[in-house]
Every structure is written in structure tokens, then in C-alpha cells.
Amino acid sequence: MPNKRNAHFFNLWAGKRNRARFRAEIAADLTAVFDLAAAGILRALVAARIPLAEAAGAMELAESETETGTVTGKVVLIP
Prior knowledge:
This protein is of the alpha+beta class and about 80 residues long.
């Protein structure tokens, strides 16, 4: 990455080729992510929490992020 950080991307369809290996790798990676989140080291940046009944507005807000850069973080729907 340009900022000298590492990123790991998952191709969820790749699991069809070697299901056992894929499940083992994703289980190990998700365990590490959840451990970091539980320890407070990794935190999700939430831009807005919006009721599910207002999903259309939430989608508009989320889409505005890519178009104008106005939203920083994730838009979370609350059931």
C-alpha cells in the first residue's frame, strides 16, 4: 500500500476451490480481527447510525461518501 501498511483482501468465491484451506485461513484471520476489536486496538469508524426504517436515506448518505467525500466511516442500520 502507498502508506506502507499491509492490506489483506478476501475473495469469498475462492473458497469453492479448496474449501478446507480457505475456511482455516479465514477462521484464523477473523479470530485475529475479533481479538483486536475485543482488546480495543481495532475500532470501526461509524459515521452514522440510522434506523432500518430509514434505509433509503442511509443508502443515499453512504453513496454520498464516494461521490463527494462527505462521510467518513460506515453507515450502520439499526433494526
